[in-house]
Specification:
By secondary structure, this protein is an alpha/beta fold. The chain has two domains: about 5-225, Aldehyde Dehydrogenase, Chain A, domain 1, CATH 3.40.605.10; about 235-375, Aldehyde Dehydrogenase, Chain A, domain 2 (3-Layer(aba) Sandwich). It has 14 helices and 16 strands. The strands form four sheets. Strands 10-9-11-8-7-12-13 form a seven-stranded parallel sheet, with helices on both faces. Strands 5-4-3-6 form a four-stranded parallel sheet, with helices on both faces. A three-stranded antiparallel sheet has the order 1-2-16, with no helix packed on it. The longest helix has 24 residues, at about 5-25. The radius of gyration is 23 Å and the shape is globular.
């Protein structure tokens, strides 16, 4: 497909999405839920087909020498298929945000003024590797009353098309237009350039992938973008932490999964508790093959640790590598997070209520946690059913973006003949 053909193809997709968005916006909750349940049923039924399609993608990715973190995100297991289906069912069970009226108040003139939640319209989603995004994005956009244009990475083309077939089946079974969710069929990157500039047809872009992809989208898009660039997440073990909790949380935050944006990349430990937690934690990490890079104080406590560089504090490794810094107090921990963090997810482990409250107030991240793992920063875990992505922006949506983040609000005014004097 040459460039002119891609432009024509994307214009066709955009027009179809815009038309479908009007049908989806007025679809009632029962109809949308029927489609979601049918999608989930089709995904569970076609588990073998989805895994076979994913195996093709994995074989191709390995042959191309794609990095381990990408392979991890690309891999779809039987459990992953079940989770996709469960995510769609959870979305179906969630309250429908569309049409919700809030803040309705009488004004002195006698009119009532409030707000109604409405769909965004057409959502373009650009993502790499993760096949589950196809189902998650389709379900969330549909329940929020939007049409979706999904452009997955070339490395997941077979997986995405197989999941798209299940999505299409669900839409049609509920009497909704199949063009309400379209998965781009070409792997040519020119399709992305078209998608992010189609102002007449697309209302918002959501990029999910590596930093280079998101930077490119944010720089070139002519459409509003919901995004995060980095997941440089921290856990701070306070002087007044419960040691058993601290070790369990810091282990899970790093080793439960390495290639995700909510994985801890830097561990901060109060100087007065360092010798109580770091030797035990470092043994856990080293036994699991995690490379440790620490400041001079951390290296003095664990002699096998490499000395960290300034750049290490900025790194989102997405790999079994962890930076460790010993800090003097809560203020220094918060200062470190402010300087080196990415406003994604940060956690404190402490039994001191005042320290916990200060951390919650002063750490300016999209998710801030007390006494738990950063790995919970996820739409599924937050009860959103699934997520379209994580936003570290401060306007419109922040944190895991679920149904509410895929809608907007408009003012509504109710009167009974009043006129302005």
């Amino acid at each position: 497909m040459n460039v002119s053909d891609i432009k024509q193809y994307m214009q066709f997709v955009g027009k179809a999405a815009r038309t479908a968005s009007r049908s989806i916006a007025k679809a009632d909750t029962a109809t949308k839920n029927r489609a979601l349940i049918a999608m989930a049923d089709a995904i569970r039924r076609d588990e073998a087909l989805l895994l076979a399609a994913n195996a093709k993608d994995l074989d191709s990715a390995r042959a191309k020498g794609i990095e381990a973190a990408m392979i991890d995100r690309l891999t779809l297991s039987a459990k992953g298929v079940a989770t996709m289906a469960e995510g769609l069912l959870q979305i179906a069970a969630l309250p429908d945000p569309v049409g919700e009226i809030t803040d309705l108040n009488f004004r002195p003139s006698g009119i009532q003024v409030g707000k109604m939640r409405v769909p965004l319209g057409v959502v373009g989603i650009i993502y790499e590797a993760r096949p589950n995004v196809t189902a998650d994005a389709a379900g969330l956009c549909l329940k929020a009353g939007n049409a979706a244009i999904l452009r997955g990475g070339s490395e997941a083309i077979h997986s995405n098309q197989a999941i798209a077939a299940c999505v299409k089946e669900g839409l049609l079974s509920a009497g909704l237009p199949e063009t309400a969710v379209q998965v781009i069929e070409t792997t040519d990157r020119a399709a992305v350039g078209e998608l992010i500039t189609m102002q007449d047809y697309v209302d918002v872009i959501v990029p999910r992938g590596g930093k280079s992809l998101i930077e490119r989208i944010a720089h070139e898009a002519r459409i509003p973008v919901i995004k995060h660039l980095d997941g440089v997440c921290h856990v701070y073990i306070d002087e007044q932490a419960d040691i058993e909790k601290a070790i369990r949380i810091a282990d899970n935050a790093k080793t439960q999964r390495y290639g995700t944006c909510n994985t801890m990349e830097t561990l901060l430990i109060h100087r007065n508790i360092g010798n109580k937690v770091l030797p035990a934690l470092s043994k856990i990490y080293l036994d699991k093959g995690v490379e440790l890079r620490g400041d001079s104080a951390a290296c003095a406590m664990v002699t096998s640790m490499k000395l960290a560089t300034e750049q290490d504090w900025y790194e989102e490794y997405l790999a079994p590598i962890l930076s460790i810094r010993i800090v003097d107090d809560l203020d220094q921990a918060i200062d470190h997070i402010t300087q080196f963090g990415s406003q994604h997810t940060d956690a404190i482990v402490t039994e001191n209520y005042s320290h916990a409250q200060r951390f919650l107030r002063e750490v300016d991240s999209s998710s801030v946690m007390v006494n738990t793992t950063t790995r919970f920063a996820d739409g599924f875990e937050y009860g959103l059913g699934a997520e379209i992505g994580i936003s570290t922006d401060k306007i419109h949506a922040r944190g895991p973006v679920g149904l509410e983040g895929l809608t907007s609000q408009k003012f509504i005014v109710l009167g009974d003949g009043q006129i302005r004097q």
